[in-house]
Amino acid sequence: MNKHKIKIAIVEDNATARLNLRSHLLSLGEFDIASYSNGKELRNGLRTIDFDIVVTDFHLGQHKNGVEWVQYLAESKLIKPSTGVIFLTSDRLPQTISQILDIHPDVLIIKPYTIKTLHTSVKHYLSVREKIKPALVYLDNDKPGQALKFLDEALEKGLSKRAKADFIKLKGRLLINEQRYAEAIALYQDILERSSNVLWAHWGLIKSEFLSGQWRHCQNMLGGLVSEQLTKDKAYEWMACVEIGKENYALAEKILDHIKENELTIPATKLKVLAYKKQGRSDDAIRLLEKKRQSNFTVKERFDEYTIELARYQLQLAENSAVEERGPTIHAAKCLIGNANRSILDRQTQHQRDFMLALASLLEGDQQKAARIIVDKTVGDAKSAKLTTMVDAIKVWFGLGDDEKAREVWNEVESKLSAKDDQIDLILADSMILEAEKSLGLSEEKAKRVNDQGMVYYLSNNVSEAMELFYKARQLNPQVPAFTLNLLQCLSDIKKAEYKDQQTLSLFDELKDQTLSDSNQKRYNLIKKKLGDYPDAYRMPPFEEQLSEDVA
After folding, report:
1. pLDDT tens digits, 73-90
2. What is the CATH architecture assignment of 296-440?
């Protein structure tokens, strides 16, 4: 029986470098190697070939960079969880290295590399990949629990020092993906106690604390990374995320001002646009998007992404304007949508374009045209699209009176959101969805539903999951005291002083003068006793104020 040949994709815009790399890799063993000059070619290749490993340069000529392509391909499910990613780059700039490290590549090799360096790095990765293969197979079959079990058993048996680090790295990522944040935090803290300079463990710990709602801890850790040249820009992005989560939009903007405009990544640009928008500064938001759009004119995929962001912003302005004032912004949005999608290559982009154009027609009051544009669209098309497109689809179908389709997509949005583990994506998507639900009059219904789900978790003793749902219910409808009380109950049960931007003692004070039912009043009195019995547990820890002073 023939042994499975490892399939490798090389992505490199320089033809000579591409041939040299292929030759070097073939000297290591018998591989099936396909070569591509950019991410678009790789995307087409992935539709027919399941590659085991992607070896990519960071800069890919007049196209999106390697990191942007890996993120896009992973989101599109064209790269499997088991696909290994090896990055090559001659660019030693901090913003480049931090972008690469943020997506946890399996190997990073800095050019110019020697053949020995390449051989050593790739041979080690192939050796570890063989050992870790059962976990990768479990992940491809959507069995993360089995993958974690295998990793734990292998770590207990003992591994070489280098292999152990790779196993722990994967375990940390899986714990985050499975929302087992407390375990992930303990894992990363253990690594950093033994070696404080492990950068991926720093990012893992920050991500775990952010996603588990420990935003203050997050900020304190980021303070140290802001002073490190290699991690500075990425740390500012994280800090801005926290401040936007806390609705401190002016401070988020000032934090992002520390990154030069031409060095803002697409996610960081979106954060800054959101900060401007929330402060009512639409001119600044449009100026920034237009500037980023024009500066990326030669990079087609990035130009299109900024163009769509600008079009979406114009549609949002139209939604918030009087009907008779919408004309110019709708016209601008439609021109931009057409400009960005002149050569549509995939269904996801087609769905995005059509739902945006249908929304524009609805805002113009032309329901018939909107219906014609999406006549062939199914709920499945919307569910397989990006979150932004899903929200557009919900607005369009509600606007056309097709509540059944709209609600089916709406119910799917939450599960798609909970599957995200990128902090910027989460903050942006959360803000967009919350805004849409409030504008469509769905927030009260959603608040009741997530609160009920929270109660199911709470009664099953899953306090962390319950707390997040009670937090969402309060966000959606803060006027209902029961939602606030449920969140307070969770915080008092686990003796926590805060969750995200909510503080236990502040929630308690907020409920003092509220009218509560008899049963809720009893709960409130019991919480009052608990707070009195353990005052130190609920007292807010000191915050490292110098960080706020540095960024203000």
Report:
1. 988 889 999 999 999 998
2. Alpha Horseshoe (1.25)
The torsion region of residue 214 among left (phi > 0), alpha (psi -120 to 50) and beta comes to beta
pLDDT of residue 230: 67
Q: Domain spanning 1-111 has what CATH number?
A: 3.40.50.2300
Q: What is the pLDDT of residue 344?
A: 55
Task: Delimit the domains of the chain by residue range.
Answer: 1-111, 130-213, 296-440, 444-538
Distance CA 396, CA 400 (A): 6
Burial class of 144 by CB neighbour count within 10 A (0 to 12, 13 to 18, 19+): middle
Same fold, 130-213 and 296-440: yes
- Quick check: 113 and 80 in contact, CB under 8 A? no
Pick among 3.40.50.300, 1.20.1250.20, 3.40.190.10, 1.25.40.10: CATH of 444-538: 1.25.40.10
DSSP class of 58 = S
Peptide bond into 112 cis (omega under 30): yes
**Residue 86 in 3-state DSSP?**
strand
Distance, CA of 191 to CA of 194 (rounded, Å): 5
DSSP labels, 240-296: HHHHHHTT-HHHHHHHHTTS-GGG--HHHHHHHHHHHHHTT-HHHHHHHHHHHHHHT
- Per residue in 312-324, pLDDT tens? 999 999 999 999 9
Distance spanning both ends of the chain, measured CA to CA: 65
CA-CA-CA-CA torsion sign (491, 497, 503, 506): positive
Residue with tokens 């990793």: 151
Q: What are the φ and ψ backbone dihedral angles of 55, each rounded to 5 degrees?
A: -110, 115
pLDDT value at position 546?
Answer: 41
Is it true that domain 130-213 has CATH number 3.40.718.10? no
Write the DSSP symbol of residue 480.
Answer: -
Report the run of H or E that residue 31 belongs to, with start and end. Answer: strand 31-36
Predicted TM-score (pTM) above 0.85: yes
Neighbours of 240 (CB within 10 A): 29
